[in-house]
Amino acid sequence: MHPSLLLPRILALKDSSAFTVIIDSVEQSASRLISEFLHHAPESTNVLYVNYETLTVDKRVNHEISGHEKVAELKQKIVQLTGTSQTLIIFDTLAFIPEQELFQLLFSLISKHTTVVCVYHGDIRSKSDSSSSCYPSTLSLLNYFATSILTVGPLSRPDVMPHVLEQHSNRISAWDIPMGCNSPKFEVQLDYRRKSGRSVIATYTVDNSSHAVAIAPNKAQQQENEADLLKDLTTFNLTTSTRNQQAKDKVELPFLESQKYGDGGVQGGAIVYQYEKDDDYDEEDPYEDPF
Amino acid sequence: MTTFNDFGIFAGEKLIEDRTFGLVTATNDVNGSWILTQFVKRLGRHDKVILITSMNDEEFYIEALRRQGIKLQALPNVRIVSLLGKNPENLCQYADKDAVVILENPDLWSAEGSMEVQDMVKTIFQIQQVSKAVMCLIQADSPLLETDSSLLATNHTNLGIQLLHQTNYIITLRPLPTGRAEDVTGTLHVSRGTRPTNVTVDEKEYLYFIKGEQVKITPR
């Protein structure tokens, strides 16, 4: 599948990314990406919002659960409201859940019809606790377990001089938030782990006001360069026009079917054939034993 | 005489909409109490305002308002709660559904250890849930934000970062980066918070100057 389809599929919960982690910062908060999740989620999806720090929760949310509770009680509440329909569970921060209980809670919520999306504020510092210093940090554990990691940031500005960018980040680390941060248009870096274990890395730009999701332009530029390389080499037409390319990118390949969850996990190896309009369907099996 | 050319940001009505949370950060060079006084004075005319301070006593604000030409008694909607030297027990009790709550330096409590950082963040969120609107002032001095592993810096950073992640707007007070000037006290930036609201925040940079009872703000 072309990576340009990946983030839209994750947002629309079409992809079986059961455990998504969003890493954000004060410079670009995850709240706009969360609102994209809520916008793109299918209407039938049951949305649970575990609220620790959101004053006004989006209307799309079906059940708001206050997170400021004991973890065991919280878990019970979430499980009760999950039901059997497709459920999206959002955590607006993970900072309040004790490290020791965090993964136990998250794993107990992940199942074949739930998608867990949690926000991790990347600029929070972990307290170096001497007693558990050999244990990996929450962030590295999340990195390890998540099926996709979305890192939000401001739109990249390749034309800006490095010293200006440095000044910009110095101001943010001094909490002097410069203009233009937390803009409705932002960049999302996706690290998606396929079931095969291969990971796909792609960058997107998301517009929260128009709900448009597009793959970052530098990718398109690369393709143009490829086309340039092939130019004038032969008299054959080896290139694809932008229109061809766009049409090609939009095709959802049939083998995605094989990655779908069935009863008891992934149903690999099944043959899925979609008849096209000119196909001649033959009732008789030509390979049938004639006797 | 008070000159206060506010260019819209202190119209109050515009910025402090219902159910918003704003964070003001200041450093030791530019004390932030003056801006809280301005908000109390301006909002207090038509809104219920509760100012909770860990840093100053009630006298301080009575005097600060007097310098602005207004008596505290003339603002019946305003209540000053000084918890100077006291433990911040059950802060939510001071909140009110119809009141704008202004918190001055709750970071002092987490720094001195009378409250855990996560409890502080939680309490400030709970105050937001039971108030009309909340504004909070915290310090952003560089020793408090250093990346070394001192517990004070880690705690203070985590408090500020988590509060910033709840904001609808941010006001930053800093000294002039180029040094001192005769007619400028510091810079004031208004920027968008991390949480989008229906209210558009007019992102702008200003210079301000305080001399005696005069407060002057000019766009940069």
What does this structure look like?
The complex is a heterodimer of chains A (291) and B (220). By secondary structure, chain A is an alpha/beta fold. Chain A has helices at residues 6-11, 31-40, 71-82, 99-109, 138-145, 162-173, 217-230, 242-250, and strands spanning 19-24, 46-51, 63-66, 87-91, 114-121, 148-153, 185-193, 199-207, 212-215, 261-262, 265-266. Chain B is built from six helices and nine strands, in the order βαβαββααβααββββ. The longest helix of chain B is centred in the C-terminal third of the chain and has 14 residues, at 151-164. Chain B has a single domain (9-219), classed as 3-Layer(aba) Sandwich (Rossmann fold). Chain B starts with 20 loop residues before the first strand and ends with a strand. The chains are: A alpha/beta (291), B alpha/beta (220). Chain A binds chain B through residues 24, 26, 29, 31-32, 35, 52-56, 68, 93, 95-96, 121, 123-125, 127-128, 173-184, 208, and chain B through 19-21, 25, 118, 121-122, 125-126, 128-129, 140, 142, 145, 147, 149, 151, 154, 157-158, 160-162, 164-166, 170, 172, 174, 189, 191-196, 203-205. Chain B: One of its GO terms (biological process) is tRNA wobble uridine modification. Chain B: This is YALI0D21494p. Chain B: Pathway: tRNA modification; 5-methoxycarbonylmethyl-2-thiouridine-tRNA biosynthesis.
